[in-house]
Amino acid sequence: MDATPVDERVIGIVGIVDDDESVRMAIRGLLRSLGFKVETFGSAEDLLGSARLDDIACLIVDLRLPGMSGVDLQRQLLAAKRELPMVFISAHDDPVAQQQALTAGALAFLRKPFSEKALIDAIRSGLSHAEGGSRSKP
Fold this sequence. Notes:
Layout: H1 8-11, E1 13-17, H2 21-33, E2 37-41, H3 44-48, E3 56-62, H4 70-79, E4 86-90, H5 95-103, E5 108-111, H6 116-131
Parallel strand pairs: 1-2, 1-3, 3-4, 4-5
């Protein structure tokens, strides 16, 4: 894994949406150790209601969440013209949801447990998309 620190002023915030606090904290710790600025959310609704939503440059989203699912969150963001790069994570084998997420533009779909390198590579890809101006804001 490339452990080169990042300049958070340039890349924006990586959002983590997972109902499992231990997963959120583990990913947050990893990303912060590499210099990423991170915000965590326990549900899709928490993210959507956050004042920080416009600051998010890339999302890591669990597939199965209480309330709105990860795929439903992706649909809602796209319908609102918020084209955020998204990396899906899941402990469940759900080929239909995986295909839906990837078809709708997800960068990656990682099965838990996933490697740090796979996650970091997907995030860096997402941030390079965000820097290139591919995302929209209302």
